[in-house]
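Revision sheet: structure tokens.
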Amino acid sequence: MVRFYSGTTLLATDSTSPYEYTWTGVTAGTYVLTAQAEDNGGAVEISTGVTITVNPEPQPTQPVLQPGEVRVVGGPQGYIDATVTPGATVRFRRKTAGKTTVKIFDLRGRLVAEKTKDGYAGIDDEVVWNTAEISTGVYLIRVTGSGIDERKRVVIVR
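Predicted:
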């Protein structure tokens, strides 16, 4: 019998030769993989660890923003896994020239992050929000100025 491990986590057991396991749905990160073989007599041997790195999937190319549109990029349907994507990008396109402010609030109404950018009308711009050290939960993003007044909801998960 062979047991497959990632660190101390048992991934699978295979008791039929050829002993193998296909690991799917792995989140981005670095892992040390080992195999533990046990013979019919109960003797156990552990393989040397193999270090692998799983890179995050590349984000798809974003369609062109319309004037006044706001889009949050970083995870599907407003869910951002901070262990995979440690940042969310708030993209917007101004209707008029001037300053645009991005404010992020938690559900208690506390301001978590704020950034103001100045720019021209019709130009895509963005603010990157570092979610690596943010608690899991629901956050509200408000983008105002330069002809924009939009709100978006984002859920940070781990």
